[in-house]
Amino acid sequence: MKEVIKALNIVKYFGKTRILDNVSLEAHRGRIAVIMGPNGSGKSTLLKILALLIPPDDGRLEIDDSPIDFDNELEKRSLQKKIAYLPQRPPVLSASIFNNIYLPLRLRGASKEEAKKTTESILSMLRLKEYAKINAHRLSGGQKQLLAIGRTLALNPEILLFDEPTASLAPNTAEIVQDIVKRYVKEKNCYAVIVSHSITEAKKIADDLYVLVSGKIKERFSGQISEEEILKWI
């Protein structure tokens, strides 16, 4: 069995507009696939299909050679427990920063001691520990994004789907997050698909890079990334 997520000839319409036009993409365990492209190219739509949030109108999605039946709600719910989907503006709980991480862990079945230990570790890693008692709604947009990333990784997902996770972060904080995500993917040997607007970020974290323009994959890079080729499309 190949350990790969495949989107095969995905087509998606919104009304009469064809948002995705026969898009194919692969994400392998232990590697980060990055999707880049101009605004309106269909990047977020593709990510939502990978997250099983919306079905394609044509084409298919496979995980480890098994086709996904979008009409099978039981199968979808089971798979979504393995998925961490982070939208561009992730919500935070109206609770302390600490509880934004601690409570989801408890709901997933972690013991009080385990949830506390994991929460403290994540807050330290993201340099948010000194703010632990502050209500999350008092945070800046960048801090909320950072908290959402931490909450996501604390749940130990098998599939990471992040939509521009560092877009609202200061450059030095973005670098910290990039390093954390790279290390997580390698150590956990998980899948990762990340939408990014930054060529610098893509060159740093991407093992495979897809350039999506007007609903079509225009370029794919594995290994060395050509900035000049990307700039032709963005």
Structural class determined from secondary elements = alpha/beta
What order do the helices and strands follow?
EEEHEEHEHHHEHEHEEH
Principal-axis shape equals: globular
Low-confidence stretches: none
CATH-scheme architecture of the largest domain: 3-Layer(aba) Sandwich
Report how far apart the termini are: 36 Å
Portion in helices: 25-40%
- Strands ordered across the widest β-sheet: 6-7-8-3-9-10
Largest sheet: 6 strands, mixed
Radius of gyration: 18 Å
Counted by DSSP, the helix tally is 8
Which CATH class of the largest domain applies here?
Alpha Beta
Fraction in beta strands: 25-35%
Q: How many domain modules?
A: 2
CATH superfamily placement of the largest domain: P-loop containing nucleotide triphosphate hydrolases
CATH topology type of the largest domain: Rossmann fold
Mean pLDDT: 92
Number of strands: 10
